[in-house]
Structures are given as C-alpha cells and as structure tokens.
C-alpha cells in the first residue's frame, strides 16, 4: 500500500484535505465517493524529489524546525527502545504530530516500511525533512541492529543542535531589537518632533548652534529622501542575498568572516562544534571515517571550512591520519586536535570526538554569554548618546534665548 494525499469537497461544499493509505489513487477516489465527497486532487506521496521537480512542483518541500525534528527523533527513539514493531512506532509518532504535513510524511514513511523498505530508504524521499547525516546514521543503525541506540544518539544530537541554534538567536535578537528601536526613535524625532520645535527658534531670528543646524539638515534630508532611503535599504538586502548565492563571492565572504577578529573565533567555534558532533554520531553508528567526513562536511555552514573538511576526507582516504590532516588544514582548535590524536592512538575516536564537541559547545556558550554581556550595555550607551545629542540640540537654543531675554 502507498500513501496518497487528497483534496476533496464534502457534502456542504467545504474543502477537506488529508491522507489515505491505499493500493492506488483510484481506490482513494472510490473511498472519497463512498463518503459522498467529490475528489479534487489525489496525489501519491511516494514521488522522489527529482520526480516532483520534473512535475514543476514539490508537494512537501516545507522543512521543519530543529526543535520539531528533535521531538520527533526522541519519540522514535523512546518507542523503538520499547521493542514495538517499527510500523506501530511510526503510526504512534504520526498520531502525536499536530502539523498535518508532518503527520502525512511520517505515515508515508510508514507505508514504505510496510512495503518492505528499510526506514532509511523510506526517509530518503524527504531530504528536506531528514538530513543526509540523519539518514546515514539510521541506515547504519539498521544494518548493525542497534537502531534504538542510534536513534537515541540522534535525539541527543538534534537537541544539542537546537540548543546551539537558540544560543545564536539569543545573541542576535536582543541587539537587533535595540538597534531597530533606536532607529525608530531617532527617525520619529528627526521627522516629526524636531521640525516643529526648531521652527519656533528659526522664527525668532537667533543664531542657532552648529549641532542644532546639523540636526535640522538631517531632519530636512530625512523628510525629503526617506522613500529613497527605504528603497535603498530593501534593495541592499536583496543585493546581499543575491551576491552571497554566487559561489565565488560566498567564498570570499566566508573567508573574511574567519579572518575578522572576534567574529572569526566565533565562526570557527560554531562550525567546528557542528563538525565534531556530526562526525562523532556517524562514527558511533558504524559509518566509516571517510564517509563520515564527507557527510559531516554538509553540516558546516562556512564554505571555506566545508571545503577544508572535504579535503581532510580526501587526505584520510589516501591513508593520512585524521589528526595529521586536520593539523595541515589549520582551522581547528589545538585542543580538538590533541583529543582526536589521543582517540586515534587509543582506538576511541568516537568518544574523543564527542568530548571535543562538548568542549566546543561549552566554549561557544561562553562566547555567546560574553558577547551578550558586552553588546547590551554598548547598545544602551549608543541609544543614550543619540537621544542625548538630540536633546542637547533642542535645549541649547532655549538656553541662548533665555540669556538674550535676561
């Protein structure tokens, strides 16, 4: 049986969507007609990604958040460890999903499992949901009959990845909110408040201080050119996104990020942490080191580091040790290299990779906390300085007028 997604009109004419498991699309239409529903579309959920693209569309191209994947993996791991049959596990997990598209995808995976496919093969139809590393680990777990352990490791990994993502968001959101608030306040003062106040002083004929004249010019410029400024801002965002999609420019940008003081260390910590975590879970799952390196390269966001990991994989396939190849690359922390060298010498590379990943994660957390502790007061000082400048520009003419009157 296969899974089919349908769109139909019920007896009252309302649109209904859902999924049925059936032998053919014709059988699904027959089921709908027996319910007195009118089928609109019935599509198989078993198409490969290439087949969907050949059709000009991808029905389930929506990806899921890391938190959703972490919860899904934890549910799978828990039920598989309870020795439940895999099709029952997938049905139980699907029934717990609130989002319709995710529930349908899991039921579609279950249908393929019931047809005789492995769980990894069934997940391959949805690469936007299950990453390559995820599928490779599941395949290794099924091959070694340790699927429960592998799913448990994947659950831990995705939860750690979710925590890393939250750390990055926490580091970015607060400064961005302060910056947007600062820009909004200054724009409001320059565009609406300052002109009305300054017009009083201009009418008095007194000589205005230079700082007040400067703000008047800025206010006039904003009132006249704010549509152009907004258009330039929007165009700049699209231009940056377009340029970063070009491989050569993306490479230069990522190289610059690695070379910048402060930002370079943060970028290295984030990417090397993801690399070590991914390689650790892959090697624990029984995947060879060379294949693990090739898969781990896909989770590295920085293009320069990604190409570096790919070169390391090539060097290892040629007979080099992992530690020596990483040492030649030059982008990895010394402590990680020492731990990997120790792991290769003692035959406990997977455990040392896990420890290295834990250490890198802790170091990343410390750097995020430090950035937050510095950015918050800096942004508050900047906002205070800007507002104080505007207040001084308004108060100086008032003080001068009082002196003239006295």
What can you tell me about this protein's structure?
This protein is mainly alpha-helical. The protein is built from 16 helices and three strands. A three-stranded antiparallel β-sheet has the order 2-1-3. Helix 15 (334-346) packs antiparallel against helix 16. The longest helix is centred in the middle third of the chain and has 58 residues, at 147-204. Residues 47-60 have low confidence and may be disordered.
Compact summary:
The protein has 406 residues and is mainly alpha-helical. 75% of the residues lie in helices and 6% in strands.
How do the strands and helices of this protein lay out in sequence?
Layout: E1 2-9, E2 15-22, H1 25-34, E3 38-44, H2 49-54, H3 66-81, H4 86-95, H5 100-114, H6 119-123, H7 132-144, H8 147-204, H9 210-244, H10 247-259, H11 263-284, H12 289-296, H13 303-317, H14 322-329, H15 334-346, H16 349-405
Antiparallel strand pairs: 1-2, 1-3
Helix pairs in contact: 3-4, 3-8, 4-5, 7-8, 8-9, 8-11, 8-16, 9-16, 10-11, 11-12, 11-16, 12-13, 13-14, 14-15, 15-16
């Amino acid at each position: 049986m296969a899974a089919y997604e349908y769109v139909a009109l019920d007896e009252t004419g309302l649109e209904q969507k859902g999924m049925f498991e059936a032998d053919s699309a014709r059988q699904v239409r027959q089921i709908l007609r027996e319910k007195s529903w009118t089928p609109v579309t019935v599509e198989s959920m078993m198409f490969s990604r290439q087949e969907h693209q050949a059709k000009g569309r991808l029905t389930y191209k929506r990806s899921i958040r890391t938190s959703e994947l972490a919860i899904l993996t934890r549910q799978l791991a828990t039920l598989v460890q309870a020795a439940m049959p895999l099709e029952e596990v997938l049905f139980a997990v699907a029934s717990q999903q609130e989002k319709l598209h995710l529930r349908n995808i899991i039921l579609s995976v279950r249908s393929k499992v019931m047809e005789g496919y492995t769980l990894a093969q069934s997940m391959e139809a949805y690469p936007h949901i299950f990453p390559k590393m995820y599928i490779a680990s599941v395949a290794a777990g099924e091959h070694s009959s340790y699927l429960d352990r592998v799913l448990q490791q994947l659950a831990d990994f995705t939860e750690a990845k979710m925590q890393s993502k939250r750390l990055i968001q926490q580091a970015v959101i607060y400064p961005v909110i302060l910056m947007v608030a600062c820009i909004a306040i200054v724009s409001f003062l320059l565009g609406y408040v300052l002109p009305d106040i300054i017009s009083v002083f201009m009418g008095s004929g007194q000589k205005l201080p230079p700082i007040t004249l400067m703000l008047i010019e800025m206010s006039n410029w904003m009132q006249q050119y704010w549509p152009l400024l907004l258009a330039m801002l929007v165009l700049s965002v699209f231009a940056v996104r377009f340029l970063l999609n070009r491989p050569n420019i993306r490479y230069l940008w990522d190289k610059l990020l690695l070379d910048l003081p402060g930002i370079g260390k943060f970028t290295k910590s984030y990417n090397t942490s993801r690399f070590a975590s991914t390689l650790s879970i892959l090697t624990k799952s029984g995947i060879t080191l060379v294949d693990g390196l090739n898969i781990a390269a896909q989770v590295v966001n920085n293009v320069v580091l990604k190409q570096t990991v790919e070169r390391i994989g090539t060097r290892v396939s040629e007979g080099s040790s992992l530690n020596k190849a990483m040492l030649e690359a030059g982008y990895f922390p010394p402590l990680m290299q020492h731990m990997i060298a120790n792991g290769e010498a003692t035959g406990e590379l997977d455990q040392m990779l896990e420890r290295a990943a834990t250490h890198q994660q802790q170091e990343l957390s410390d750097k995020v906390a430090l950035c937050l502790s510095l950015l918050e007061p800096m942004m508050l000082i900047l906002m205070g300085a800007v507002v104080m400048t505007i207040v001084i520009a308004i108060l100086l003419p008032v003080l001068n007028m009082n002196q003239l009157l006295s």
